[in-house]
Design brief:
Layout: H1 10-16, H2 21-34, H3 43-50, H4 59-68, H5 82-86, E1 102-105, E2 118-125, H6 132-140, E3 144-147, E4 151-152, H7 170-175, H8 180-200, H9 206-222, H10 228-251, H11 255-272, H12 275-291, H13 295-309, H14 315-331, H15 335-350, H16 366-379, H17 383-396, H18 402-418, H19 422-434, H20 442-455, H21 462-474
Antiparallel strand pairs: 1-2, 2-3, 3-4
Helix pairs in contact: 2-3, 2-4, 8-9, 8-10, 9-10, 10-11, 10-12, 11-12, 12-13, 12-14, 13-14, 14-15, 14-16, 16-17, 16-18, 17-18, 18-19, 18-20, 19-21
Amino acid sequence: MASSRSVPNLAFRRLRAQRSPGEFAAAVRRAAREIGEQVACDARYIGRVEAGEIRCPNYAYERVFLHMFPGLTLRDLGFLPREQVRGRAARTPAPVPATASVSVSAVDPATAPAGGPATALAMTPATNHTGDTSEESDVLRRAFMTTGPAAVAAVSLGLGGSAEAAVPGPREAGSRRVGEAEVSAVEEAVRRIRLLDDRHGADGLYRQAAQPLRAAYALLDAGTPTRRSTAERLHTGAGELSISVGWLAHDSGRFDDARSHYAEALATARVANDPAVEAHAFANTSFLARDSGRYREAVRAAQAGLRAAAQLGSSRLLALLSLREAAGWAKVGDRAGCERTLTRAVAYFDRGPSDADPEWMSFFGEPELEAQKALCHAALGDARRAARHVYRATALQDPHFARNLALYRAELATNLARAGAPDEAAAAGHQALDLLDQVQSSRIHTRLAATVRALLPQRRLPEVATFLERHAATDPRA
């Protein structure tokens, strides 16, 4: 709910001119890609800015807006100084320890103040730089905090207040209702988890990210928000958060946990009659089934997702679900079914992006399309064709998506090894290892282990031997 102090941002509204909020949000996303940023901007975010609910954007949005409107300042765009919004003086960023890990801390609900579940997820990508990167870490810090059945303090989101002030007593907690602040905090938690996963992988995030998920479902149990639109957003946010946490479990090799989280998201979607969350849950369930060796289930889940997505108007979502189905057909050895479904996926993809595309699909561009084609051809035993597709994926991938780039390079190495190009495979393997200082993903280590197995017969070659030695020294499972 907008604060009583909110003042409409007329300067920002004038910059939008004749474009709709959806069209302007698309322009913001394009501008972000131009400078290597990732923002999940949609029409709702633009509406919140223009209504004055967002008095100062986070650092990622600030960079994008200043790129879009060169020569203007945040004040020219209608925003307030950050220190005024935060209620504190500007300070010099503290040095950040030089480490490659992702630091995630959480308040244990058992030790939280009275009033129900209390969770603070501090998702800070570790870095050896100061300045702008450290400032962005401050935005990520306390991305999701909920205390009591219906009280959220999300200081870094510009919702006001402090963590301590937001902790209600037992009586107060029972009398408060879920509102805009709580729902916005759930939505922002989803965005922060996705951002950090793209940059750093899942291994350092999963266990702590489960805590805001429990808090989100506690909000659902606390009671229905007064406004129907707020209730729908809360169900959608809880479902998407469950999928995001499930993906962290999936990417870090915890398949049983992932399956449970995806099932929870699917149940939430069906209770709320939300086909978008349902399609997303089925897309991830299909992916997990393929990785778990349940290939027929992968096909059926993808087909169920296609039925849910049919009414949403997103060709890119239909393309991704078709790729999930194609991968399942490839794994059961049905070449005709795989090729037929791949053709359908490409046809959907070629229709281009639209405002109906879910914001979680920001990763899905031509690189991912090529990588998914490669997985299908590899499963069908055509390593050379797979290597060509995944090479294109590595060449096209934005370095911002460090986890995906490392994964593509690991898959390229495996396919080159199987295609009889050991030196090239070793070189691609080195490139994947280069990124493991930034990325923590069990799935990537599994792919590299497959590369090692494929290269062992050629271990006497100098390039291969060097790669194998380096891999052995860096493999956390060795």
